Structure prediction request, 333 residues.
Amino acid sequence: MAHPAHTSLKPAPVSPHIYIGASRNKLYLPRGSRKLSPEGWSRTFAGPIKVEWNAIARSKGFDLVHRIRDKSHVVLRCHTCGALTAQKLFTLRTAQPACAACRHRAFLAMAQKAGLEFQGYDPEHHKLGVYRAQCGHPVRRQFGQIERIAAGHCKLRCETCHSGKEAEEAADRGWQLLGIDPEGNPSYRIYQHGCGHRQRVARANMQSGRFQCTECGEGWATAPSNLYAIRLELPTGLNVVKLGFSRDPQSRLHHQLLLQSGIQAELLRVVPQRTGHAALCREKALHRALKKSDPDAIIPHEHFEDWLSVKTEIYGIEIAPLILKHLDDIRKK
Prediction:
């Protein structure tokens, strides 16, 4: 989470150009020159322009306009877009200069294709641009990633929006999101419980509720729990009912029980129990009773092992009414 491309508290983006001369013409600057003082680019250098330099510039797609800043820099006009670009004289003579204006327009077009608004260049990391996402938040991304987003190979995730979602997840369970994991594990965050205790928790566990506060939390045996019945229809056509107990049956269903997608699942009944120990005792008694009354309804593990994360406690759907009656009788007690 500390990758420079994903950090929002950064200096303001850098503009690709400055204004020079009385006519206030735009002068586009190469990537490595944007940190130099703008005042220096306003100075014209009075040295001569050799004829061979003009010829070299034309052969490479530019007109050499004049010298600027010092003996090492010149201003070139691009034959393609007509914009002015500052370049080192050495680069003009020994390599193919790039038009900073054409490059900038390409970034603008790519950002628009990706559904973003390009706002400038990151002043600290030359491969990063600063963009405004559709949600309105600023994001910093590598130019190559913007190309992949524009091509549909990946999607943009706004860190600000994502952090807000994580904060809501934590608040729903009585915790406050404080920030990234101090130990650097990207799967963990640091949270503060309502009791004031701070704790590292995996985000997946915060979503599922499969953890407790190590300062004030109750163990499963003494914490409130529930008996539950869940109907499951596998893509294989197998229709079954799962009988069990859990502190959070919804979490059990959506985050732990199902191994693959495509399973139709419905929580049929939830019966609150005062403690996990009481829930366990009653669950075991129910399984003993069902094993005695309907042994043929027990579904062998090999019939669902690729789909569910349990090995037992799965029954044919035909005894669902009996299981629900047992649970209703417990609720009435």
